[in-house]
Design brief:
The protein has about 325 residues and is an alpha/beta fold. It folds into 2 domains: about 170 residues, Isopropylmalate Dehydrogenase (3-Layer(aba) Sandwich), CATH 3.40.718; about 140 residues, Isopropylmalate Dehydrogenase. It is built from 12 helices and 12 strands. The strands form 2 sheets. Strands 3-2-1-4-12-11-5 form a 7-stranded mixed beta sheet, sandwiched between helices. Strand 2, helix 2 and strand 3 form a beta-alpha-beta unit. Helix 3 crosses helix 5, helix 4 packs parallel to helix 5 and helix 6 crosses helix 7. It is globular and about 60 Å long. The two termini are about 30 Å apart.
Length: about 325
């Protein structure tokens, strides 16, 4: 299996990206990593990491899309950017998946340009796993779409349900719409309109509105929201867990094992759902361990035949 890695994207690229790739090459069997970026820079980083020459090759790309650049404009100007080149390697059949810690908007735009969306899906969404006591809750979108229409929330619900079946093995996932109250009358205009559509949708196990706390109670297997809200929730969780760990450490309590499930570096990344390819979106501040786990996530998505499974599930409901 070949995984294309955008080696130039992210706050700590390329050093931490390369370190994570070296670890993946050592630990993941039958996986070849294609590091996409400036050849000279990447060769030097590989030497610093003591790379043994196995499981990694470099594909040169001369440009980088920075985190603060407008995605669509940057892609048009930088056709040889590392994220576009990595995504096109998948389109050409030279890789089975792409992993990036860089500009999320550019990653989504590259996937849309190279692969396109499933029929009936307007825009892809990032679906991540939120740990809870007895498993995981799928939450989407967590950053790809900050402004959405009601119809797109319905599409996210369908994709999230399909992903829960594929990734978590949940036969009939319960889908909740994130709102400011459980009552059908709660929410803004978009969520109210989405609720009306979801409750009448055949083939979807819609359980109604859910609140933020329900991400952890197990009331729903899938929680749907726009990318602005979803990304904000993730960042709040990161900050809260970090603060809890500091306070417990100051009190002489070792909290690492207790809170390790909430460490985003262990999950590594989240797949972009709805596009006709595997693109794993990693945290912009990912270091080597998160990069390694993001690559492992991409391998799981390919092994699970996630794209075909989601397409089949969406077609069955539609």
């Amino acid at each position: 299996m070949r995984i294309a890695v955008d080696a130039m994207g992210g706050d700590y690229a390329p050093q931490e990206i390369v370190k994570g790739c070296v670890k993946a090459a050592d630990l993941l069997s039958d996986v070849e990593l294609i590091l996409v970026g400036d050849r000279e820079v990447l060769e030097e980083e590989l030497r610093r990491c003591g790379w043994a020459g196995r499981g990694i090759r470099i594909h040169h790309a001369s440009q980088v899309i920075e985190m603060n650049e407008h995605p669509a404009l940057a892609l048009r100007k930088k056709k040889d950017s590392s994220i576009m080149v990595a995504t096109m390697l998948v389109k050409a059949g030279e890789a089975e998946a792409v992993v990036s810690c860089g500009n999320t908007g550019a990653q989504m735009a590259a996937a849309l340009f190279a692969w396109g969306c499933f029929d009936g899906i307007d825009r892809p969404a990032i679906g991540t796993l939120i740990p809870r006591y007895n498993g995981y809750t799928v939450m989407l979108d967590v950053g790809a779409n900050v402004d959405v229409k009601a119809e797109q929330l319905v599409q996210f619900a369908l994709m999230g349900s399909a992903y829960a079946r594929t990734a978590l093995g949940v036969e009939n996932p319960r889908v909740g719409l994130l709102s400011n109250g459980e009552e059908e009358t709660k929410g803004n205009q978009v969520t109210l309109a989405a609720y009306a559509r979801l409750k009448d949708l055949n083939g979807l196990n819609f359980v109604g509105n859910v609140e933020g706390r329900d991400l952890f109670t197990g009331r729903a297997d899938v929680v749907v929201c726009d990318g602005f809200v979803g990304n904000t929730i993730l960042k709040v969780m990161e900050g809260l867990i970090g603060e809890l760990m500091k306070r417990l450490q100051d009190a002489g309590i070792d909290s690492r094992e207790l809170l390790q499930d909430f460490d985003y570096t262990r999950i590594g990344g989240a797949p972009l759902l709805g596009v006709k390819g595997v693109s794993v979106v990693c945290h912009g501040s990912s270091r080597a361990e998160a990069v390694y786990n993001g690559i492992a996530q991409a391998v799981r998505c390919v092994n699970q035949d996630m794209v075909a499974s989601l397409n089949h599930s969406l077609a069955a409901v539609g």
